[in-house]
Protein: Flp pilus assembly protein CpaB
Organism: Adlercreutzia wanghongyangiae
Amino acid sequence: MKINRRMLVSALCGVCCAACVGLYLVDVRNEADQARAEALARYGGDQIEVCVANRDIAAGEVVENGAVSTKMWVADLLPDGAVTDPAQVVGQRLGSAVYRGEVMSDRRLEAAESELSVPEGMAAVSVPARAVQAVGGSVEAGMVVDVYATGPVSTVKLVAGALVLASSASAEGATASNAAWVTLAVEPERVQEVVAAAQNLELYFALPSAAGGAEDAADASLPADAAEQDAAGDTETAAQATPAAVDAGAGAAANEGAVL
């Protein structure tokens, strides 16, 4: 008899608890509906079904079908270019990161324009560079450097007068101590050589003096006809010197014969 009474009391307590939980959930839902109604009254009653990210999506990632879903959103709170059809974003590569719960927009699909300007006829190649290898991490875009490749046996100058297009040291928020890479402008036919050296050897970057860099730049900018004229002058001088050298050699031989 006591057992039946206990079971009945336990059942009644369970029913009361379930009823309290149900009343609480209804109250929470009513509060949410009321808050939503207030928001609609404040910002406008028009709602639009838009695409919302189900998870964080990194920049450069291709949007998968399960990464977005559609939800109703207050029209006045939508960002410009809000996407309403999942087909507009699924399979597209993001230009910037999107966070969970964020409304997808066309602007997120626009790839950021590269600020890297590669000189005509050159190719951009990035190589690893610790701070100690990059003049204490001070190598930045716009500098002209000499690149040395060193290994267990020898050290050679790999590239002379290479223009620095970008570096991790000049990136936003970076410091000289966390330099990790340098992007150089090199001849396209030398890209393979530079990459192979970066993989198998240690690369060091030397910063020439301003005077040395100016001389190198002047030499590089020397017109082709001037260079040809210089070469022709050198050839003519060498040709003039040759007969004199022959006469001198003949005179020396005659003197030697007279002595004998």
